[in-house]
Amino acid sequence: MNAAKHTNHLANEKSPYLLQHAHNPVDWFAWNDAAFAKARTENKPIFLSIGYSTCHWCHVMERESFEDEKTGAFLNEHFVSIKVDREERPDVDKIYMTFVQSTTGSGGWPLNVFLTPELKPFFGGTYFPPDARYGRPGFLQLLQQVAQLWRERQMEIVASADELHARLELITSRDARENLPLTPQVLQRATQMFQESFDPVNGGFGGAPKFPQPSIPSLVLRAAKRFGDDEAARMVLRTCDQMAAGGIHDQLGGGFARYAVDAQWLVPHFEKMLYDNAQLAQLYLDAFLVSGEVRHAEVVRDILDYVLRDLTHPDGGFYSAEDADSEGHEGKFYCWTHDELSRLLSPEEFIVATKYFGITKEGNFVDHSHPAPLPGQNVLSIVNAEVPAADQPLLAAAKSKLIAVRARRIRPHLDDKILASWNGLMLGAFARASAVLDDKKYRVAAEENSRFIQEKLWQSPQGGAGSPLPADGAHRVTRPTGTLYHRWRDGQRDNVQLLEGYAFLLDGVIHLYEATLEPAHLDFAIELAEAMIAKFYDPANGGFWQSPAGTNDLILRVKDDYDGAEPSGNSVATLALLRLAAITGREDFRQPAEATLQWSAARLQNQPAGLAFMLHALDFWLDEPRRVVLAGDTDSTNFHKLLQAVHSVYQPNKIILGNAGAVEPFAKTLTVKNDAVVFLCTGNSCQPPTSDVTRARELLG
Predict the structure, then answer these.
(1) Quick check: is 615 in a domain?
(2) Torsions phi, psi of 330, nearest 5?
(3) Taking 60 as the threshold, does the pLDDT of residue 469 lie above it?
């Protein structure tokens, strides 16, 4: 690549992924009207390539094809080429990923799709090698075939694209089926299905490649609580222990990689994503509350301290990801050779460390995607956890030396864009951890993050953030709502609004309110919820659209209904609104959530594996939630102790609220003159209040 020779339209973008391609010989455009107009004016098909900045195979395809002069020249002559960062525009990605999955049976990134000038897809796939291999055509050969078909059979292609678009509309449109029962049996059947896929040796649900998918183990824990299933709880704790010991967990620097390529959690795909680590922090908080084992709390601290050190903007926003590659090799930053360790460590340290981490001369990892793989690479995992007390100082010294040496290596690329959605997930993890682990550092991080998002990405409705919104008797908002934008980077925000931004941030802010009981946080949650319902909710059928009405660069308006590595906006919105309705008593929050559950009912019954997080919402909705109301002197030591105590019990279907601010009316009647007390309430009846920390825990047990 010659940066001086080529500069394309992406040089003006903010996305780290788009900027990675700014000096390709391909004349890339961003997803915008200028690109669409060029395709229509010149009557050229669009080549759309979607990926993200820490995507390993995106790097490989760029190196092999998009940096190739001949390929670039052909694309420039025959196509209008568009690059999209899927993390900035998951709504664009959702449409074309659905097309590729429905026509090929699989998907992934890079996602490469050919479109008509009207943005309708007619052919697509994922990674294409430069030459024919893996049963796939060479990329330049494919381009030549598509260009020839466009010249000779354009009318047929356009007709086919119209037909495929109509099929895509059918695939993505789904109305609620009336009166499908949502019962505890739906939850029980889904959990049994997950349990049947449990790996008793290595933990996890399913085989290789293994993604943590925290929505699934955390759901199994919920079901274990509901149905008194101790074996289900043991499955989840086994999974947590095996993941924490595996190479998917960065044994030196903290945090988790995106997935493991094997069944043992040993060899990761080394990229680290903010959304994975946020969900895993929540899962390990659950595991800690269920098991009482300090090791699970230590994993939470390990994740959050990694984020504070390596993924946090000085003003409090959280960055998106770290790459798998460094210096052109996947995993080079993280791996070690036997000889390297023998030189770095004392003989005594070397013996202990190689046994603990399972280091061998042959290594346990080969970067097959590189033409010249590095030899003898070892991913660190805990192979022999039992370290005699006399050897523990040696292991600690060895780790310290390895951390120091690794800090001098060339780090993987950092994707430093800040997304409202993923920040919401991590905000919730920090907030809840601050209460469960009683750590002020995490509360400070959560509050700084909330402030950052409000300053950089949130545009308040008239009257300012946190001010009460006028409403009619049914609490329907009677004035304009606020606006949450999706991405901030390098001093600028975008103009994109997405359901997952509103939903994930709403979830995080509710956790922040429950961890602090500050009324201003509840006010912000209410503003977010009102704006989300106004902009995205489908009152005719239930469910939330992924994009607001009037988003004019999409060929379809779709509802995301799949909980994968990330939960869907619909699932998170549903649970968040149910929780907020219980805190505030507002039916206008409860009704859209219940309608969205009904919209999901058929899939919850028939394909529960695809909606694991929506099952969390179902679990919450099935019973009246326990309301924990704290009253009294909010500045007192005992108030703080009681708040920490009620967070320290695993009771997933509880809400925690104060008696001030925009809480439900009954909570406001629960007052005391002195000290601080806890009321445990269901409906309009409460247990006798207590100021005793132990008793407060017992009430929730």
Answers:
(1) no
(2) -70, 130
(3) no
